[in-house]
Amino acid sequence: MRERKSLSLVALKAMSRAWVLILVLLSAAPPAPAQGAPSEPPELAPLRELFVLPDKDIDLGQAKLLIDHVIDPSVNVSVRLAQLDAMAAEIRAALPPGATSFDRAQYLRGYLYALGPWSGQTPFQYDLSDPHGNVFEHRLLHDYMDSRKGNCITMPLLFLILGQRLGLDVNLSTAPQHLFVKFTDPASGSTFNIEATDGGLAAEDEFYVEKMEISKQALEERVYLQALTAKEAVATMMTVLCEHYEKQKEWERSRVVAEVVLDHYPKSVYAMVKMGNSYAGLMDETRRRAALGLSDSQMEELRYLSKQNEYWFTKAEELGWHEPSEAQELAYIASVRKRQEELH
Known about the structure:
single chain, alpha+beta, two-stranded antiparallel sheet, 8 strands, globular
């Protein structure tokens, strides 16, 4: 048996495990579609409609809320969109006449992370009580908006969404198990990495390379640290649906979502890992159905699923993906404890 881990974007921690039975050697051919696969889940239809739009017309706030609504149907997309618009309006009202793009970015940072009457003296901050994102609801935007405690999914996404509403040149970007924002100042042409989990401070690419152990191969393949298009950003947001379906053990739905993500963001190694994990789950389902013994057709199905599982994990590894090291996990835990101590 071989252990494969499905990594969460929330923190540097393996969130779930898939045990993989290797039945065949890896084929050099690309994976073939599953035979008789069910049709796409209807809840993905509104998201599919977003991918038809030009990038400039995609509302990233709407995209995130539509995704969260699939997970939690109580999320009122219209109400939450109005709340996001109101937040952006508050920032615009506070801007001085002739405010530059850089000014707007600074005001956005202050609005989110500084003490003031606009925040009720409760700024948005990292949720140190759930550093590994074990509470699934904490990955949803409305939870962050209400609690003002977030993580490396919700915090950069809110900065990105409000930045888009303020007319800033902002893009989502990725590091291993992490999201951040790239802001480009049109006046200087300079691009800054905005680390939303650290008060919106700027961070150099080297910070992510060192702290998150980005491999040389991943850098050469331009897998991480890139300014994503709007469609790639939406696809990245959708990976939380893979996690949601994995939690429900709805492996085929997780596979379909990962496939949609890769259609629009082919270098999403995280989606490749989710794809591999979904095939491991489908293998488990096949074995459970064959409790009294495997038929020839079921053996063939297992061979196919195993080949797909191995294909997707190997593809991610060839692009530079790797599981986090023990040292990386220990360093993350130490940084969380340090921040907790600083608050007491």
